[in-house]
UniProtKB/TrEMBL annotation:
Pfam families per the UniProt record, alphabetical: 2OG-FeII_Oxy (PF03171), DIOX_N (PF14226)
Family: Belongs to the iron/ascorbate-dependent oxidoreductase family.
Database matches in InterPro entries: DIOX_N (IPR026992), IPNS-like_FE2OG_OXY (IPR044861), IPNS-like_sf (IPR027443), Oxoglu/Fe-dep_dioxygenase_dom (IPR005123), Plant_2OG-oxidoreductases (IPR050295)
Lineage: Eukaryota, Viridiplantae, Streptophyta, Embryophyta, Tracheophyta
Chain ranges of the Fe2OG dioxygenase domain: 212-311
Gene name in the database record: ANS
UniProt region (Disordered), positions on chain: 357-416
UniProt organism field: Lycium ruthenicum (Black goji berry)
Entry's Gene Ontology BP terms: coumarin biosynthetic process; flavonoid biosynthetic process; pigment biosynthetic process; response to molecule of fungal origin
Stretches with biased composition (Basic and acidic residues): 357-366, 373-416
Keywords, comma-separated and alphabetical: Dioxygenase, Flavonoid biosynthesis, Iron, Metal-binding, Oxidoreductase, Vitamin C
GO molecular function, one term: L-ascorbic acid binding
Name under which the protein is recorded: Anthocyanin synthase
Gene3D superfamilies from the UniProt entry: B-lactam Antibiotic, Isopenicillin N Synthase, Chain (2.60.120.330)
Cofactor entry: Fe cation; L-ascorbate
Length: 416
């Protein structure tokens, strides 16, 4: 008698609640990705390097000395870590509480209700409720479900796909997005000054009020029976200019700092902020886009609310600003649109390659100086010399192909 094949649930939440004791093989990460994964609650208590906490209370102080001290601390964190906890950020605890309740309430709905908002990654529609699909990057799945949608500017909202339950979801999320946008302006001004530029320069370079998109991704990480074998989000750097993250005070964020994975402690009333690739490129590497990942646990559900501040896909060419380039420090990055940058990164997803990708342009001066070239051998130059020649050839080929599958993958990458 042939036993019936039971299909794997399409949502990680359903899989987690099915009573399994071992996770399916497609969720088991390669051994080299599992370094540094232990009990996340114990990891959080460890000593060692700590993600900086930046107090923004004096970011606009009329006292020059006090204001300058705040600006210098922010600049230092952006250069050394590329990630920080922001406190006294000006967004009320009441509003943040509403955002968390709204998102948490949506994910408390039965899966069947959430499916009404399902996206369709195969057609390039990434907005809505979804789960990671295996792609040619790693063939692996991540232990998370999510809800992804554009939250700013308002004229780019598609409220038809925003959750109707709870009723406060739309007003709370909309107001939070507006306040994050204002906070982004302040941060970009400080970082501009930190590069010796006029304060509005970086904001202009990433699209300004009209074209800078804010995309929200609510990440839902169910309890995992084998957290030592899985990842909620695999190692990556954010492609955004800035990323702002709330979470439900369950640890899970790890940063690759000074050659080791460091678990971020949970800081009450803070917003985590990442410097993304876009600012790393514009600053010619002076600001750091740090490699990071999300780990899971078997005791508590973790939820995070990430807002990615992204430049327009094709309107702007991202490259080091002339003021950041000198003879001693030539351009480290080739000119690309935001869409081209995402395509370049698309097939570099595991720890080994993501780390190599993060360093790929440290020695790329020869190619970068020739900015008029198409950089067809970009991937072979630095990363290929060091450790990833075979995979880099696939990357270079994939970058220059124009196919429907590439477009679908790029759309899926945008929801990372």
């Amino acid at each position: 008698m042939v036993s019936a094949v039971v299909p794997t649930p399409s949502r990680v939440e359903s899989l987690a609640k099915s009573g399994i004791q071992a996770i399916p093989k497609e969720y088991v990460r390669p051994q080299e990705e599992l370094n540094g994964i232990g009990n996340i609650f114990e990891e959080e208590k460890k000593g060692g390097p700590q993600v900086p906490t930046i107090d923004l209370k004096q970011i606009d102080s009329e006292d020059n000395e006090i204001r300058e001290r705040c600006h210098q601390e922010l600049k230092k964190a952006a250069m050394e870590w590329g990630v920080m906890h922001l406190v006294n950020h000006g967004i009320s605890d009441e509003l943040i509480g509403r955002v968390k309740v709204a998102g948490g309430t949506f994910f408390d709905l039965p899966v069947e209700e959430k499916e009404k908002y399902a996206n369709d990654q195969t057609s390039g529609n990434v907005q809505g409720y979804g789960s990671k699909l295996a792609n040619s990057a790693s063939g692996q799945l991540e232990w998370e479900d999510y809800f992804f949608h554009c939250v700013f500017p308002e004229d780019k909202h598609d409220l038809a796909i925003w959750p109707k339950t709870p009723t406060d979801y739309i007003p709370a999320t909309s107001e939070y997005a507006k306040q994050i946008r204002n906070l982004a302006t302040k941060i970009l001004a400080v970082l501009s000054i930190g590069l010796g530029l006029e304060e509005g320069r970086l904001e202009k370079e990433v699209g300004g009020m009209e074209d800078l998109l804010l995309q929200m991704k609510i990440n839902y990480y169910p309890k995992c029976p084998q957290p030592e074998l899985a990842l909620g989000v695999e190692a990556h750097t954010d492609v955004s200019a800035l990323t702002f993250i709330l979470h439900n005070m369950v640890p899970g964020l790890q940063l690759f700092y000074e050659g080791k994975w460091v678990t971020a402690k949970c800081v009450p009333n803070s917003i985590i902020m990442h410097i993304g690739d876009t600012l790393e490129i514009l600053s010619n590497g002076k600001y750091k886009s740090i490699l990071h990942r999300g780990v899971v646990n078997k005791e508590k559900v973790r939820i995070s609310w990430a807002i990615f501040c992204e430049p327009p896909k094709d309107k702007i060419i991202l490259k080091p600003l002339p003021e950041t380039v000198t003879e001693a420090d030539p351009p480290r990055f080739p000119p690309r649109t935001f869409a081209q940058h995402m395509a370049h990164k698309l097939f570099k997803k595991d720890d080994h390659d993501a780390a190599a990708d993060h360093k790929v342009y440290k020695k790329d001066d020869q190619d970068s100086a020739t900015e008029q070239k198409v950089f067809k051998k970009d991937d072979q130059d630095s990363a290929g010399k060091q450790k990833a020649a075979k995979k880099d050839e696939q990357d270079a080929n994939a970058e220059h192909k124009v196919s429907e599958k590439d477009n679908q993958d790029i759309a899926a990458e945008e929801s990372k």
